[in-house]
Amino acid sequence: MKHCCLPFLALLCLSVPAFADQPLQAWIDVAPAGSVLRLPPGTYSGPAVIGKALTVDGGGRAVIDGGGRGTVITVRADHVTLRGLTLRNSGNSHDALDGGLMAEGNHLLIEDNVIEDVLFGISLHRSDGSTLRGNRIRSRDEELADRGDGLRLWYSTGNLIAGNDIARIRDITVSNASRNRFVDNTVRDSRRALNLLFAHRTLVENNRFEHNATGVVALNSDGLLIRGNRITHAMDPSGAGVALKETSAALVQNNQIIHCAHGIMADSPMHPLNRIVFIDNLIAHNVTGVYFYGAKGGHMAIGNSFRSNLWPVMVIGDGDPMNDVWWGNDWDIYEGFDLDGDGIGDRPHELFAFADRIWMETPAARFFRNSPLLELLDFLERLAPFSAPSLILRDPAPRMRPLR
Known about the structure:
By secondary structure, the protein is mainly β. 9% of the residues lie in helices and 40% in strands.
């Protein structure tokens, strides 16, 4: 008789209006596997663990409060959907990755949730084929380095992260996780908008990264496609719109990189055949438009537009800068004409370093860059060079009409 009453009690629990701070775990435990648990409006207490296929729908009016302990919801099953929930008040342990959601299942759908006043936002650990869509994520109001990651992907493959609003976090970290897609997200007021570590074949498309210390940082991540993003105001002294290190076979295309310390910063690829290609980007109002270090070649810059950068290109290190390929870029400092009207300058664009070599080769002297003394030395060097200037780049076919 007791067993016959269990289904009735479960249905009764699913239909009774919520009272303050009911334990969410009790609601999860009575819901059958594969069912839809629609939570009535109210506040529920966590932490809670989901260990079966289940859809939990809060309708935008259910709040799960972690009580300042651990992670608010942990998912340990495949085919789980969390929708329309507010997750808040996690624990505060970086070691335990306390946060709003820890997901350890495959084929999950996490959409239209609000995650706030938590240390970490959403962590995917060994989660494949999941979708995170339309979520609003905020960390704690702490110093930048003391916050947690808004999103954290670890050994997770083939996930879609789309249309999320993320702000005031530490980083989005993707570690040992390949073939993930970041599309149409907004990340602002954080440290690193996207931190890729051994994150091969990641797609970063149509995102807006604003007022972060750095935009996209990639380390040992090959086969990246960074396309159609708007990256602005990354003005940390060591920051960049896009920074690539020990990364090969990357395509950076059709991005707007505006008002950053460095627009694009990259070393040479590990193998010269695995080119890093920059095509049709707008690089404007940066301290340095493009900064290549290592000077061993392997870069191709085609059809980019350089506008109002304090210094358009800087190349530092051993090797020959002429190993890089420049073609068809629009240079606002180009000193030439287009007499035949074909849209291509009649002579190549060449960029030389005169007195600029002082601060390029001596980091301690960069403080004096653009000072009256160095400007005077640069003028005298151009007027009557004491030694042959260094050729930084040569674009044989500079474009006369800007890309945008």
